[in-house]
Fold each of these.
Amino acid sequence: MANISRRILVETRNLSREPPPGISATPDENNCRYFHVIMAGPNGSPYEDKLGRICLDILKDQWSPALQIRTVLLSIQALLGSPNPDDPLANDVANMWKNNETEAILKAKEWTQIYAIGE
């Protein structure tokens, strides 16, 4: 248990020294395993400003203790620029992406404005 906390503290210190581009991650005051993350989506993507829910293999069945917090954050950011509709969080959204990518991108921009930015 102490090793996990020490590792999180070391990774957190490294994140503050060399933050990934477009990502701010700060640990919660009450739980060092919980991070408050603000992430800029890739330019030109529907997620240019902020992020909502995602589905990413390294956050579920491909998790490894060898992954660093920085690596996970960069993987999430990369997913925003190249979504994978074959491994969706929401099947209806994936179907829209497969059948009408233009409409899906417009919907993603709309939802980003409403849910991630709060406009």
Amino acid sequence: MTTYGTIPTSSSPGASANLEYLSRAKERIKEGLGARRPWKFMFNIRSINFPGNVSEAISRVRTNVSYFRVNYAIIVLLILFLSLLWHPISLIVFVVMMAAWFFLYFLRDEPLVVFNRTIDDRVVLIVLGVLTIVFLLLTDATLNILVSLLIGVVVVLVHASLRRTDDLNDEESAGLMTGPPSSS
């Protein structure tokens, strides 16, 4: 008996495992992006002024980078992405490697197993890092990538040194807590 054109009524175990993996991945992405601060708060014009001295600027950079780390990462990645628009092969390699990073490093719940051997997270981190650098270098966009990363770092450092920190009231995420977090 053929079943062409019929819709199966029971789901296979593989499909439910895939759905579970996707829902866990979605939750992890939401958690990661949940640490992002509101852009309006980050670029509040009233919170911008020049630091009094170098030590104050360094203190601001440390506090702001800790507080706005997800926002800054998004800015640097956006600058890198925009710089790769003129190098489509590099852009494809960048997107493929970003997908590899997500699936092999960031979204994994269980250790990576290859040929019945458990691979340590540090090994995965090193291998993915080396492969990303090698593949991007092979696309002949090295100077473009380095310049865009440099521009991204400069943008972050300028913003972090100019933005006052006195209105950042979330001390735990700013890394300013000295003792254990209070339970309230």
